[in-house]
Amino acid sequence: MAPRVGTVVAVGVTRHIPAWLVGTALLCCSLAVLAGVLPDDRADALYHSYDGGGVEITGPSLMVLKKLGQNVAVNGNYYVDSISSASIDVVTSGASAYSEDRIEFSGGVDYLHGNSIMSLSFTNSSEDDYEANTAGFGISMDMFGNMTTVSMGYSRGWDTVMNNLDSTFSRDADRQNYKLGLTQVVTKDMLLELNYEGITDEGFLNNPYRSVRYLDPGGDSYSYESEIYPNTRTSNAVAIRSIYYLPYRAAVSGEYRFFDDTWGIDAHNLKFVYTHPLQGGWLLEGNYRYYTQNAADFYSDLFPFQGAQNFLARDKELSTFSSHTIGFKLSYDFIKNGWRSIDKGKINLAWDHILFDYDDFRDLRVVTPAPGDEPLYSFSADVVQLYVSIWF
Amino acid sequence: MRLCAFYLLLIALSLTGCSSIEPWVKPYERAHLADPIMNFDRDPVSGAYMTHVYQAREAARGAEGGHGGGCGCN
After folding, report:
1. Is A147 in the B-facing interface, judged by CB distances under 8 Å?
2. Does the residue A22 lie in any domain?
3. Across the interface, which of B25, B27, B48 has its CB nearest the CB of A29?
4. Handedness of CA B69, B70, B72, B74 (dihedral sign)
5. What are the angstrom distances between the C-alpha of A257 and each of A133, A186, B2?
6. Domain membership flag for residue B7
7. B46: in domain
8. Which three-class secondary structure state does DSSP give residue B36?
9. Closest CB to B45 among A191, A356, A387
10. How far is Cα B60 from Cα B40, in angstroms, rounded to an integer?
């Protein structure tokens, strides 16, 4: 159940994540192995929890990856987001808090041929007001004496956007996604990875529930009108990552990503991870991530009058903001030397704390004499994952 | 078109003897690279979930990594 019928304006709490993006992630998973070597048989059961900004999202993710003979491996993933939302968007629009589920099924096949792995994947994601299907293809090859791995992928998604307040509303959005990747052995202690991804979207790209605000004549109050987004978007992202093996069996990795799109958004993020195995099968990991972006060309927290532009957005994900994440993960190998048909088992607990600071999105829960003087919005979120992995 | 050109270049390279380039890190020197802690995406289910967490709240998308590659040490 998304926004309840009868609310004045209902605003989605999180952007819909198209299945093609998640499908691409699955494709990544299926290719997250050495080219020329199929992934090991494994199963993962994960419980996730996100709590921040008035939003709680929990659910399971179950994945199985199994080889069939020497050249074929199949994988499947079942994922659920159970959302309970009273976010600032919902609260300030006058809508009621709501809850809804998103259920996603993914499947894929890897085929090993010589030094190459070819992958096919399909994903279906379903909510009561959003349906998405994605199909993807990828290939990964070892080259130059297994010093270099090159990969590429293409996926296409078909989404249908609906509106719980209007049963006749149905719009389509098509997505195409192109990926190139290169992993290079630099030294006996260092790997380098370069990735490019280009994405094109066409169709209905905004949230049918969301509104923008504009100043009323006189300037001492404001009203709302519906968001209007362009029908197309093209984005490019380039990332460089490196991981280094320290002399005392630990690893440190770093990454930088640059992003831009045709909506005028530039974004940068940096991430560092330190991984430290301990005695007795324990492993400790710490990470820090910084992210920053500028606003879309057609974003404004407060438009000067109704219909001020041909495109209008007040989605805080399109505003200027930055975030900091600090996280820790503790893992324990509870099966080290095999037990029955299980070769290895690991249990993991991960916690990430994220701070979001918005530079041009204001907290409308605070009423001020003049619109536009409200304090800037910020919030923090805690993300917890508990998962078990077994190899068999 | 560019993607096709890139793919053709890859095929050409793989067919024309570039694979004979002498590796400067020998297979027997790749023990550290083969250690699981050197995997960019050691826990793919967890990695995919965190990508989902960020993509839902940021405008940036893509090139999250995890695809392709490793150390060539198997």
Report:
1. yes
2. no
3. B48
4. negative
5. 27, 20, 22
6. no
7. yes
8. helix
9. A387
10. 20
Q: Within a domain: residue A295?
A: yes
Contacts of B64 in chain A (CB under 8 A): 25, 28, 195, 239, 257
| Residue A200 token pair | 């094109």
Confidence check on the interface: ipTM exceeds 0.85, yes or no: yes
Please give the tally of structural domains in chain A: 1
- A82 touching chain B per CB within 8 A: no
- Cβ–Cβ contact A237 with B under 8 A: yes
In a domain, A381, yes or no: yes
A284 touches chain B (CB under 8 A): no
Find out whether A151 and A180 touch, Cβ atoms under 8 Å: yes
Asked if the structure places residue B65 within a domain, the reply is no
Q: Which residues of A touch B22 (CB under 8 A)?
A: 145
A to B CB pairs, distance under 8 Å: 244
Closest CA to A47 of A33, A58, A56, A34: A58
Say yes or no to pLDDT of A24 above 90. Answer: no
Positive or negative, the Cα torsion across A53, A167, A160, A46? positive
pLDDT in tens, A324-361: 999 999 999 999 999 999 999 999 999 999 999 999 99
Q: Would you say residue B40 lies in a domain?
A: yes
Say yes or no: A35 contacts chain B, CB-CB below 8 A. Answer: yes
Q: Which amino acid does the sequence have at A369?
A: P
Mean pLDDT of all residues in A68-80: 96
Residue-wise pLDDT for B2-27, tens only, equals: 555 655 665 555 555 444 667 888 88
Which chain B residue lies closest to A35 (C-alpha atoms)?
B69
The pLDDT value given to residue A31: 41
Q: Pick from A384, A287, A286, A283: which is nearest to A334 by CA?
A: A283
User: What is the count of structural domains for chain B?
Assistant: 1
Angstroms from B50 CA to nearest CA on chain A: 9
Which residues span the domain enclosing B42?
26-60
Q: Is residue A294 part of a domain?
A: yes
In chain A, beta strands by DSSP E? 42-52, 55-68, 72-85, 98-113, 116-127, 130-143, 148-163, 166-187, 190-203, 211-215, 222-226, 232-246, 250-261, 266-277, 282-293, 321-335, 344-362, 376-391
| Token pair 């009273």 in the structure block, residue | A86
Q: Containing domain of residue A189, as a range?
A: 109-118+129-391
CATH code, domain carrying A381? 2.40.170.20
Taking CB atoms and an 8 Å cutoff, what residues of chain B touch A149? 68-70, 72
CB A378 within 8 A of CB A357: yes
